[in-house]
Design brief:
The protein is α/β, with parallel strands linked by helices. The chain has 15 helices and 9 strands. It has helices at 7-12, 16-22, 83-97, 116-123, 147-160, 171-203, 216-224, 230-261, 267-273, 281-291, 300-307, 331-341, 352-357, 363-385, 390-410; strands spanning 37-39, 45-47, 49-55, 59-66, 74-80, 105-109, 127-131, 311-313, 322-325. It has a 5-stranded mixed β-sheet. A two-stranded antiparallel ribbon has the order 1-2. A two-stranded antiparallel ribbon has the order 8-9. Strand 8 and strand 9 (322-325) form a beta hairpin.
């Protein structure tokens, strides 16, 4: 007996991922999910092609997949890694497929090449997205990996809607983020330079017995220190010069961050975040520049998951097992959030510095900051009473702190830039 299904019944009877391909046989049904064809001005339909790029520094592999079909992706060829070479190759592909250049839908994996290619293609009028490589599907028996296969895989997953898009930050936000990361690099270099000097002096029998290391008295002690061997004296002077250089570099980058904040559109969000305990200008600018607009997250849990602060889980049947945090997403933002969360180990208090940072902020922002202090410190005491490891307690506070930051951007009336996916 032949059973005829209506388009609605047919759409419900097939998986969601393949619905876009199958609904091409039913024009006019659920147009939001059927992306195989585009209607032109003369009321005719054109094919839609999904382009997958496997981008590298010196070369880019190109493949395409026809929308609304189950056909395999086709490898088109390759081109150089420069922007003009990529643009020329895509124009040639559009001509081959007999479609308009701006009708191509392009996707490539996030990687060391950054977002320059995506911004250029969007500027040219193309629809371009960047996918998360860690979220792509991989079959257990897949043992062969080439640029050609990767490009075909990207095109196929993009057509099927199986990709997870990565946020493409605005160019100005990325520039400020780069300055914040450069400040972190300078701080790391300063720490390494200090450690090298301490190890060198300890190896030669010199120990500083003062209370505060790297303060004024400690630096005076190091500069007045004289070693017997002239060669070792030169090493000491070079290490001291390296520390001075790192300090100057660190201060220059902090000054640059303060200068950039004055004209940044996210300054109200940064000022509001500085009302929280543990957030001065460096930490606040780092968090805002790394995570961007938090209004794109529907709830705090999705923001926690983005930061990789939620526990991993392997459950089956009636058994449930949770492990360490996933550490997915933005590691720099997660690190800064954990560093700031450590301040909440101390009892709630609005210090003189924090009071100055809260001046001019609305009452709702100060209320959220005070609630965060009380809740996080209470949670820390409760976890320590259970003899939980210190690091796990701090991670738990950082996870809840992220929810207060989400609330700051989503539930208050602070001035915010227009809502975007970035």
């Amino acid at each position: 007996m032949l059973v005829v299904l209506s388009p609605l019944q047919f759409s419900r009877a097939i998986p969601v991922r393949s619905r876009a391909a199958c609904l091409a046989h039913f024009p006019g049904t659920d147009p939001g999910s059927c992306r195989s064809k585009q209607r032109t001005d003369d009321n005719t339909m054109k094919d839609t092609y999904y382009i997958g790029l496997d981008a590298h520094k010196e070369s880019i592999a190109i493949a395409y997949a026809l929308g609304g079909s189950r056909s395999k992706a086709v490898h088109h060829g390759g081109c150089g890694g420069s922007l003009p070479a990529t643009e020329a190759a895509l124009r040639k592909l559009a001509k081959k497929l007999k479609v308009g250049f701006k009708e191509l839908k392009v996707c490539y994996e996030a990687g060391p090449t950054g977002f320059v290619l995506a911004r250029r293609l969007i500027q040219l009028g193309l629809e371009c997205v960047v996918m998360a490589p860690t979220k792509s599907t991989r079959k257990p028996g897949e043992k062969v990996k080439t640029d050609k296969k990767d490009a075909m895989k990207i095109a196929k997953e993009y057509r099927n809607g199986d990709i997870v898009e990565v946020r493409i930050p605005p160019s100005n936000d990325q520039a400020i983020r780069d300055v914040a990361r450069a400040r972190t690099d300078a701080s790391d270099d300063l720490t390494r330079a200090k450690q090298r000097l301490k190890s060198f002096l300890l190896c030669n029998g010199h120990r500083y017995t003062g209370s505060a290391t790297w303060g004024g008295p400690h630096m005076n002690y190091l500069r007045s220190l004289t070693l017997q061997n002239p060669a070792q004296q030169i090493v000491l002077e070079e290490y001291l010069l390296a520390i001075d250089h790192c300090l100057l570099r660190l201060n220059r980058l902090v000054d640059k961050m303060e200068e950039l904040l004055a004209d940044w559109e996210w300054k109200p969000a940064v000022d509001a975040l500085m009302s929280f305990k543990g957030f001065k200008i460096v930490a606040a600018m780092t968090i805002v520049s790394e995570v961007g607009d938090l209004r794109r997250f529907d709830n705090p849990r999705s923001f926690m998951s983005f930061l990789g602060l939620v526990p991993s889980e392997h459950s089956t049947g009636t058994k449930r097992h949770q492990g360490a945090i996933t550490k997915c997403g933005n590691s720099h933002a997660r690190w800064m959030l954990v560093e700031s969360a450590q301040h909440y180990r101390k009892p709630p208090k609005v210090s003189e510095q924090l009071s100055r940072r809260q001046q001019g902020q609305p009452a709702e922002v100060r209320d959220i900051a005070w609630r965060a202090q009380n809740r996080l410190h209470t949670k820390y005491k409760r976890l320590k009473a259970r003899h939980l490891h210190e690091n796990k307690a701090v991670i738990a506070m950082a996870r809840e702190l992220s929810s207060f930051i989400w609330e700051l951007q989503n539930k208050t009336t602070i001035t915010m830039p227009p809502k975007t996916n970035a």
